Fold this protein.
Amino acid sequence: MTDIPPEPTRPSAWGSLPLRVLFVFALPALLIAFWWLTSDGSTNVYWPPLRTILRTFPDVWTRARLRADLVPSLLRLLAGYASAAVVGVALGTVIGSYRKVRAVCEPVLEFLRAVPPPVLVPVIMLFAGIGDTMKIVVIASGCVWPILLNTVEGVRAVDSVMSETARSYGITGPARMRAVVLPSASPQIFAGLRQALSIGIILMVISEMFAASNGLGFTIVQFQRGFAIPDMWTGILVLGLLGFLLSVVFQLVERRVLGWYHGLRDSSRRSS
Amino acid sequence: MHASLVVSGLRKVYEGSGRRVEAVRDLTFTVDAGELVCLVGPSGCGKTTLLKCMGGLLTPTSGEVLVGGRRVSGPPPGMAFVFQEYGRSLFPWMRVGANVELPLKQKDLSKARRRELVADALESVGLADAAGAYPWQLSGGMQQRVAIARALAYEPEVLLMDEPFAAVDAQTRADLEDLVRRLWRQRGITILFVTHDIDEAVYLGERVLILSASPTVVQEQLKVDLPQERDQLRTRVAPRFAELRTHVYEQIQAAKRGEPS
Ligand SMILES: Nc1ncnc2c1ncn2[C@@H]1O[C@H](COP(=O)(O)OP(=O)(O)OP(=O)(O)O)[C@@H](O)[C@H]1O
Ligand SMILES: [Mg+2]
């Protein structure tokens, strides 16, 4: 009567680890090879050979430049993203929990969400100046919508039986939020956080293109204006790598926090 | 200290989206402190509705429920509820041990005491070594046993159980029935047990309450005069058991046809 089914091992549709690594890197490798070959003989100034770009890379992205440009960009992104996460989850929890608040807020939210975040940059510049605050506000104001709306949906969708279970055991208020509502909404919240991450990177670059004295966006625009085209391309490579790394980190965090959710999904898929 | 249950003139009408459902018409009955009463009735007759009103999860349209002499206006402390939908009643993001422990955190207990209660409760449902598993790694019957363990660890005075064994296999079911009887005798909890299984109602209960079909009233209350000591093999073949179950069966048939008893 007490035998526990073994921990489910995640179904490894892709077989062994080496094979998986091969699959993950196959397409990127192919694309890079394609870029290399098609650009190799290029004499177009705006479309330098990849060979040239890669040769320029170490000269441009020295340790000093990384510290001067990459670090400020990352800090702004982090600050904007984190404030958006805090505000989005907190506000979303309140809006999702009370039907009346939702009825009042929903039309406004739908409108605000429909405004493309980049157009906010000039507006926010008027209020927040052209310093770091402006950039952080721009990033946060773009990131907050997917987080907020997904949190509202997640909080609304808390299962009625779970909710009643909590209530019948006197689990209410903050304890209910912490133990029931937020974990239950966490898959949706993470979906929002994931969307927000890519929006955040875009806004980081855009806000630095408007008015800045450092940062990745600023540097890329500087190179372009100075006709240092291969250097400009290396900046774009750095941006791509940054986006890739951040999404890997995000996935690792998500795997940890939502381990239960993936397990639950796998187990219901197996049994159905 | 154990609490009795008094239901008087209970009526519940669901309103909403243009539909008006009178789930419960007029229910009056009592469950004495420390009594184990089974409730049977046709599907959809309002058993869950009744239990939720008693558990303070629903507000009755009229009438009232008293637990230990106090009028219920919200979930009363000292009452535990085992839901029909066990799969949705456990929290999938918590391991079994944490699920059982969660309600205890609302009580003023030391960590050591909480651990002890969790371990004892899991032990008594035969899941001592499942504390580290997630609910979705367990079979349906095991999940329901976790829900029962959670209710037991809470040390309730009143236990409301809504068709708790509907989804478990026959063997586990027999084990769980004996478990409920054993715990009831050991701890003197007041238990109201809803089931659609007539044999189960007669086997478990000291008394069986039969509800009519909708509009729901109490069709009959039947004292189960079987010995205290019950046994899956002998009790179920006793002549008196057969008489009682036949009687309950007839009453339910009559209830479905809408005849008064
Ligand atoms: N939230 C609700 N809103 C509207 N009607 C409801 C609601 N819950 C239950 N009902 C209706 O009330 C009646 C009684 O439902 P209830 O779930 O209490 O029956 P039950 O006796 O527990 O049934 P079962 O044996 O199938 O569990 C049904 O007709 C049902 O459709
Ligand atoms: Mg029911």
User: Anything to note?
Assistant: Chain A is about 80% helix and 0% strand. Chain A touches chain B at residues 1-2, 4-5, 7-8, 159, 161-162, 164-165, 167-171, 175, 179-180, 183-184, 186, 260-261, 263-264, 267-268 (CB under 8 Å). Residues 73-218 of chain A form a domain with the MetI-like fold fold (CATH 1.10.3720.10).
